[in-house]
Design a protein that fits this description.
Strands 3-4-7-6-5 form a 5-stranded mixed β-sheet. Strands 1-2 form a two-stranded antiparallel sheet. A hairpin with a 2-residue loop joins strand 6 and strand 7. The protein contains 2 helices and 7 strands, in the order E-E-E-E-H-H-E-E-E. With 125 residues, the chain is mainly β. The protein has one domain. 14% of the residues lie in helices and 40% in strands.
């Protein structure tokens, strides 16, 4: 999420503060393989890891049994928090660049694929 702030003119004169946040738009398949990888329609290279973490947090971690804040705490039977378990690698496959993100949930290990070609140059990894 990106938060932007600025001043906008009031119709009757003067200015007011305007806040706008931007959440990256996720598209693609289910993120389980290279062929079905997630990709961001709107993001930037500086916030890719943050965006990927948000997907893990909101789409995979939070359930009726697991509240938002437990993402940063150990939830048995896990031995490490989901946030601390996140591991990343970057790979090239079929001329596309992917972030491969592995993380622990109480029910087991998950791996997601994010196609990030348009945010990274091939010489960056």
């Amino acid at each position: 999420m990106v938060l932007c702030a600025g001043c906008l003119p009031k119709p009757d004169g003067g200015f007011y503060w305007a806040l706008k946040y931007h959440s990256p738009v996720l598209a693609g398949g289910d993120g389980q393989t290279y062929e079905t990888a997630y990709y961001f329609r709107h993001s930037n290279a500086d916030s890719l890891y943050y965006s990927e973490d948000n997907i893990i947090h909101y789409r995979y971690f939070i359930t009726p049994q697991r509240p938002y804040e437990d993402f940063w705490h150990i939830v048995p039977p896990a031995k490490v928090s989901c946030a601390d378990s996140i591991k990343r690698s970057t790979m090239t496959h079929d001329n596309k660049i992917y972030d491969i993100v592995t993380f622990e949930l109480p029910e087991g290990t998950r791996t997601l694929y994010f196609e990030v070609t348009k945010y990274r140059q091939k010489h960056d990894h």
